[in-house]
Amino acid sequence: MSMNIGEAARLSGVSAKMIRHYESLGLVPGVTRSDAGYRQYDDTTLHSLRFIRRARDLGFDMKEIGELLQLWRNRRRSSAAVKRIALAHVADLGQRIAAMQAMQRTLEHLAQGCAGDERPECPILDDLAAQSPDGHAACCEAPAPAATPASRGRRSRHSASA
């Protein structure tokens, strides 16, 4: 079955803009064009788009998705390679969750110290202004862990909706 980009977007749950982006990254290869120059998608491409959407929903970055797509398309793949990618992502998620929990604790502590009234004094603003060049907060917590190679350049799933 051949379909245009709008139909592929509707059936895959991936916006037309993101489909074009995935094509530019080489994640959706072999898209044909009609005589009029319009992109044409088949069921295999549609399945790949759904795969990408699900991987994005799980927070995999584009590099990881590219690796997973290659493994998925290779019927002689080793499941150990897939598991390695998944476990590395799990570890990255754990680090990011821990960093976010530390941020949450710090902000809760700062908010408890804020009177929240008409006075201009604000420990939250004081803490933000007192941030040292090395990233250590003036109060409460150590800085968030440095970005891991897997998390560098990663956009939140809300910044580029799949």
What secondary-structure arrangement, pairings included, does this model have?
Blueprint: H1 5-12, H2 16-24, E1 32-33, E2 39-40, H3 43-57, H4 62-73, H5 79-112, H6 123-129
Antiparallel strand pairs: 1-2
Report how far apart the termini are: 23 Å
Mean pLDDT: 85
Strand content: under 5%
SS element count, helices: 6
How would you describe the shape? elongated
The sequence of SSEs as H and E is HHEEHHHH
Structural class by SSE content:
mainly alpha
- The tally of beta strands, per DSSP, is 2
Q: Biggest sheet, open or closed, and with what strands and sense?
A: 2 strands, antiparallel
Physical arrangement of strands within the biggest beta sheet? 1-2
Low-confidence spans: pLDDT under 50, at least 5 residues? 148-162
Radius of gyration: 22 Å
Summary keywords:
6 helices; elongated; mainly alpha; 52% helix; disordered C terminus; Multidrug-efflux Transporter Regulator, Chain: A, Domain 2; 2 domains; 2 strands
Describe this structure in words.
This protein is an all-alpha fold and 162 residues long. It folds into 2 domains: 5-60, Multidrug-efflux Transporter Regulator, Chain: A, Domain 2 (Orthogonal Bundle), CATH 1.10.1660; 78-151, no CATH class. 52% of the residues lie in helices and 2% in strands. The chain contains 6 helices and 2 strands, in the order ααββαααα. The chain has a two-stranded antiparallel sheet. β1 and β2 form a beta hairpin. The chain is elongated and about 70 Å long. The model is unreliable at 148-162 (pLDDT under 50).
